[in-house]
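EI: anyone free to look at a 207-residue chain?
SC: sure, send it
EI:
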Amino acid sequence: MEFAPYKVLRFKVTLLGSQPEIWRIIDIPDDYNFWELHVAIQDAMGWLDYHLHEFVPNKKGPTQGRRIGIPESESDTDVVADWDVSVKKYFTTLGNTIQYDYDFGDGWQHEVQLIGMFLADITDDYPICCDGKGACPPEDCGGLPGYYDLIQILSDPKNEEYDAMVEWLKGHAKKYWPYKPDSFNPKKVKFADPYERWKIAFNVADE
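SC: here you go
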């Protein structure tokens, strides 16, 4: 029995303010909701999903301009839940963008732009990271200013902060050492199951 191919949406995710620019190209099924897109962005970029996030619409779309993320409570009307909003209902035209913010302390901001729509290759498993450039900054490094300080320190082993920075990277949950800011291989990206990530986030036990 043959199955009709479903549609795929291709996005470019760019870390705003990064120089050289850090970016990823990802393909996702067009039936994804924004929670599933969030998980795909986290995994493709290399973030650890340790902090809060939200999507900030650049047009009214299905949420009438309200942010998309995790509401603080059932009565929170300023934020629409990720899992209640279909990605394809917002991204209706090539070039549509939305801002994706992660870690409100460090303030990582991304532009998510729809750059392609096509039928899935039935031999592939989606989502897929097709391309990208630049390593993800280490989690909790202090946003872009802290990231650039980190790069500068690592470029000079004689820097008085070099040893402490190396120890921090070695002891990090992701064990970032050796950290190579220009290194990225899309083939090494592994995508988590969005529902399993949701259960972890909300401490939901298996039934």
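EI: Strands lie at 7-15, 23-29, 53-57, 67-69, 79-81, 97-102, 108-119, 128-133.
SC: 👍
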